[in-house]
Write a structure and sequence with these properties.
single chain; OB fold (Dihydrolipoamide Acetyltransferase, E2P); two-stranded antiparallel sheet; alpha+beta; elongated; 2 domains; five-stranded mixed β-barrel
């Protein structure tokens, strides 16, 4: 028959095992949160799991939307792309292309380095399901690739897509609107 001392020792070991298991699980959860680009993400991850879900409430232009996040409205400027302004050729077409992708949709917003621009707009990569909207607009010729440092995680991809769209002369490229000789703002 076990002694009281042996029973206390087993009980103490069991508490230590439970404590170690609890700490291990907590550390694993924290690690998973960081790897998936959770709320602590400030890097250039475009992993959908690292974003916020929002509902698109308005299309402002080809690279800007209004969204609702948990009942709060925000203006979102797409990272890494630029579309024609309201007084430029191809503005309506680029705005329509954006609307066709995101109007009324639930989107995932993913941050790069900066949270907002100088106008207070959220700076985000935007996804509708598996469609990377920023990239799709460039690929289809409705947007040009533009670097706004430090938010440049997808700059190489966007430049490759723009080169292909320009060679194919699609979207806004036939108008020459993107031929200003600069891709850094």
């Amino acid at each position: 028959m076990p002694t009281k001392a042996a029973g206390r020792q087993r009980s103490s070991r069991r508490r230590i095992q439970i404590l170690l298991l609890t700490v291990s699980l907590l550390l694993a959860a924290c690690t998973m949160e960081l790897e998936s680009g959770g709320s602590g993400n400030s890097g250039g991850s475009t992993v959908i799991g690292g974003g916020e879900t929002a509902r698109v409430t308005d299309i402002i232009d080809g690279d800007t939307i209004d969204v609702d996040i948990n009942g709060v409205g925000y203006r979102v400027r797409y990272i890494g792309v630029n579309t024609p302004e309201s007084d430029e050729s191809c503005y309506d077409d680029a705005t329509d292309a954006n609307a066709n992708l995101v109007a009324g949709q639930t989107v995932t917003l993913v941050r790069d380095s900066s949270n907002t621009d100088r106008f207070g707009r959220l700076l985000r990569y935007v996804y509708v399901g598996n469609v990377f909207v920023n990239a799709q607009l460039v690929q289809d010729g409705w947007a040009e690739a533009v670097e706004y440092p430090p938010d440049t995680a997808n700059a190489d991809q966007f430049h490759q897509l723009e080169t292909q769209a320009a060679r194919s002369n699609i979207g806004c490229h036939p108008t020459g609107i993107f031929d200003d000789g600069s891709d850094v703002r």
